[in-house]
Design goal:
heterodimer, A: alpha+beta, Multidrug efflux transporter AcrB transmembrane fold, 2 domains, four-stranded antiparallel β-sheet, 10 helices, B: 517 residues, alpha+beta, Alpha-Beta Plaits, seven-stranded antiparallel β-sheet
């Protein structure tokens, strides 16, 4: 039989490093925000003839769009994200581009005013906060008959903060390297991940609840470990089936919902890890009040429980 | 037990057939719904949000918002956009969605323009009979029938809806350009002659001009107001109009001409009021001379009279819209079509891979779960069509994600079944125990996803650039709720069915090694 819970300090160590990297990246590089959050215009242009990315970029810089972020979006197609364009500016830009590279069409265009952008940031922040509180309340309520139900809720929240931090950290790195921005779909993906991560955690906690009620297992540590082993193939299989569809989405639909899909992929992996390895371990550490043992080298002197 | 199972099985088959009937063929009309309702990002189109410039007090404001929306609606109707959405958003915002209409600059100028108000009369031929569209359609070489008038002709059909409400529709325009007379549709594109055959009775309206040849337009109007006329036994709503000095003279000249052109009630005697070539009202001329003011009568509702008065007064939007719009978005139709195709492919590949995985890992139960998954997909899509849910790209993403999550309940149950079998239960007992014990986990875990969906739906409804968020929340939420039913009921019914067949004695099909852990 596996001893998963016994390796809890290794899990904390791995998570700790990942979170540390995420925080450093978030603090140094930050998150680049898309037009929904910071206002601006986004334009996808499609050329009849193939156009080189570098040439395209040079042309835009030549036209004075030094602030523009340019992404290649398929054959002869580019996405330009820049400041809020007026109708005249847009027409002029498209004229200049067709003068340089030939026939051009506008595949998509969107423009968000500063007013709408600040509302979006405000409401997205509220949504994330309500989601966290709602889930804490729900998990606490679902485990109300257990001793210390708040522990379950709090551990589920720590797990989801863990997933959120890692997803944001990865995006901050992707933003620094590839110019990826966070947009409304990123927030949507993040909330979906939160729901998913807690979903996994709840299944494991549910089994702990059941095994505790049955009174199987010598102590809480054994109960937690048994419950983890019992639910392990479920956790892995469900993550696999979900990953399968998300990968299918990434491969086929890609482009426009790329951010969203990548958040989901990171979130599903991080969420599975946190539900299996972090949340139950925290529950146990809290129960045994062994916070002091968080420091790995002090553990060596202790006997393994 | 078995009998109950058979009934549920029949019910499931019935729902499945109903779902398929609803869905196939994909663009068929079922229960009043035609095809899946696709969002702007999939069919292409324009999405605009404007903020109105408020300067009046609150009561005035609410009325003006309604009028502004009506005016925009009228302008857009002329362009034949299918199912445009024009609605108020919050206090002072107006949302405009034009599916399939991808020229964003044209859409904006259509909304932002100030309308052109003019007055017209019906064209008559040599014998004094009103000219209709058929007279022009019969010509071999298009030429103006009333040669003295070379201005544009506007052909207006009078249509009646099911409740017998009268509605005017501009069906064609005729204009002279360097000696060539050209027939176009209402938006200026070459006319479709076969389509016009339906509207042969449409009257031909020519500019109403004073004796000096000046066209009577909205510029000559001094004021217009909705009023209650008490002179009759039953008070009625009328619209009173006042002309300026020059307008007063032109109008009286026109009135006297029309008064003598035909009997009361004939088209020859009507004065057509047009906004951007759309006929608003065609009151009859009652007097030879009005001396600066007149009254338009009709079966006006209070709102109808207000609206007409407002259109006459401004010809423009009752409240100015701030420019540029707060939010604007345009997606080309080809880009959208590409997304649909790719989403279907992603969904198909996803569902097939999940089925392969489930069958490989869980064998026979996995196969049954796969059948339940097909049932799930058909039922959810049928619901999307019937509710109807507007599917955006993110909405399709939510649906595809829900396919991956839909098997979760089955995975939970099957894992539980395996445990129960290992503990030495019979197959039948293990199946029942698997379902019963897994339920609390299925319920509790799905609730968290539903909480998130509700919050996302709120977020989507509270902000502007939000169609994707709402679409995702809705499809994922519906998906999760339906999957709780399909994964449990359908799989259980099928498993019970199999259990009583010879297949049920072959434990290898259940991928279980008894007694080992």
């Amino acid at each position: 039989m596996f001893d998963i819970i016994g390796k809890r300090f290794w899990f904390f160590f791995i998570s700790g490093i990942l979170i540390l990297i995420s925080i450093i990246s978030l603090l140094s590089a930050g998150l680049a925000s898309g037009i929904e959050f910071s206002s601006g215009s986004m334009l996808t242009v499609k050329f009849e003839a193939p156009v080189e990315y570098n040439q395209f970029k040079e042309e835009l810089i030549g036209l004075g769009y030094t602030d523009a972020i340019i992404q290649s979006a398929g054959e002869g197609q580019f996405l330009i994200r820049t400041h809020l364009l007026s109708d005249a500016e847009k027409a002029q830009l498209e004229n200049s581009l067709s003068g340089r590279f030939g026939q051009v069409s506008e595949a998509s265009f969107s423009s968000v005013s500063p007013q709408v952008a600040s509302e979006t940031v405000h409401n997205a922040a509220i949504a994330v906060a309500i989601a966290a509180i709602g889930i804490l309340l729900y998990v606490t309520w679902a485990f109300r008959r257990m001793p210390r139900p708040l522990h379950y809720g709090a551990c589920a929240i720590v797990a989801l903060v863990h997933d959120t931090l890692i997803a944001m950290g990865v995006f901050s790195i992707l933003g620094a390297i590839l110019g990826w921005e966070i947009n409304l779909m990123f927030i949507t993906g993040l909330l979906a991940v939160i729901g998913y991560s807690v979903n996994n955690t709840v299944v494991i906690f549910d089994r702990i609840r059941e095994n505790l009620t049955k009174g199987i297992g010598a102590n809480f540590e054994v109960v937690v470990n048994n419950s983890l082993v019992d639910t392990l193939s479920r956790s892995v299989n469900t993550s696999l089936t979900t990953l399968i569809v998300v990968l299918a989405l990434l491969l086929f639909v890609g482009a426009n919902i790329q951010n969203f899909v990548v958040v989901l992929i990171i979130g599903i992996i991080a969420g599975t890890f946190s539900s299996v390895c972090i949340a139950p371990s925290l529950l146990l550490v809290w129960d045994k009040k062994e916070w002091g043992r968080f420091i790995p080298w002090r553990r060596l002197s202790d006997k393994k429980a | 037990m078995t009998r109950k199972n058979t009934i549920i099985l029949l019910l499931i088959l019935a729902i499945f057939s109903f779902s398929l009937w609803t869905l196939l063929p994909i663009d068929a009309e079922r229960l009043g719904r035609k095809g899946l309702n696709l969002g702007l990002d999939l069919v292409g189109g324009v999405h605009l949000v404007y903020e109105a410039d408020i300067s009046e007090n609150a009561t005035e404001h609410a009325r003006n918002m309604n009028r502004t929306i009506t005016t925009i609606q009228k302008r857009i109707d002329k362009y034949g956009v299918t199912e445009p959405i024009i609605q108020q958003l919050g206090e002072d915002r107006i949302l405009i969605q034009l599916p399939g209409f991808t020229d964003i600059d044209a859409a904006k100028s259509l909304v932002e323009q100030t309308g052109f108000l003019d007055f017209r009369e019906v064209e008559v031929n040599d014998t004094g009979r009103p000219v209709t569209l058929v007279d022009y359609l019969q010509q071999t070489q298009l030429e103006f029938i009333d040669k003295g008038e070379t201005g544009d002709r506007v052909f207006v059909a009078t249509l009646y809806d099911q409740e017998d409400n009268q509605e005017y529709r501009t069906v064609a325009l005729l204009s002279g350009d360097n000696g060539n007379v050209i027939l176009t549709d209402a938006s200026g594109n070459p006319a479709d002659i076969t389509k016009l055959q339906e509207y042969t009775e449409s009257l031909s309206w020519i500019p109403a001009k004073g004796n000096n040849g000046v066209h009577l337009t909205g510029d000559f109007l001094a004021d217009a107001a909705a009023q209650i006329d008490q002179s009759d036994v039953v008070p009625k709503y009328v619209v009173s109009i006042d002309w300026n000095a020059e307008g007063s003279i032109i109008f009286d000249q026109i009135a006297s001409k029309l008064y003598n052109a035909g009997e009361y009630g004939t088209p020859q005697r009507a004065l057509g009021i047009f906004l951007d070539n759309s006929l608003l009202s065609a009151p009859q001329i009652r007097q030879q001379s009005y001396q600066g003011s007149g009254q338009i009568e009709g079966n006006f509702t209070p709102n109808g009279a207000e609206e007409l008065a407002n259109l006459l007064k401004s010809g423009a939007l009752p409240m100015p819209l701030k420019q540029p719009p707060l939010y604007q978005e345009k997606v080309s139709a080809t880009l959208g079509a590409n997304f649909i195709e790719m989403s279907w492919l992603a969904g198909l590949v996803g569902i097939v891979l999940i089925m392969l995985f489930m069958i490989a890992y869980y064998r026979l139960p996995g196969l049954l779960a796969s059948l339940a998954l097909i049932f799930y997909g058909a039922l959810v899509l049928a619901l999307f069509k019937l509710i109807p849910v507007t599917l955006t790209l993110a909405g399709l993403g939510g649906f595809i994600l829900s396919i991956g999550m839909a098997v979760d309940a089955n995975v939970l149950i099957f894992e539980r079944m395996k445990e129960e079998l290992r503990m030495g239960r019979t197959l039948g007992a293990a199946i029942e125990a698997g379902f019963n014990r897994a339920w609390s986990a299925i319920r509790d875990s799905n609730v968290t996803t539903i909480i998130v969906c509700v919050i996302l739906f709120w977020l989507g409804s509270s902000i502007i650039a939000s169609a994707p968020v709402m679409g995702f929340a809705l499809t994922l939420g519906i998906g999760v709720i339906i999957s709780m039913f399909t994964a449990i009921t359908v799989t259980r019914t099928l498993l019970r069915l199999v259990l009583h067949s010879p297949l049920g004695r072959n434990t290898a099909l259940f991928n279980i090694v008894r007694g080992k852990k």
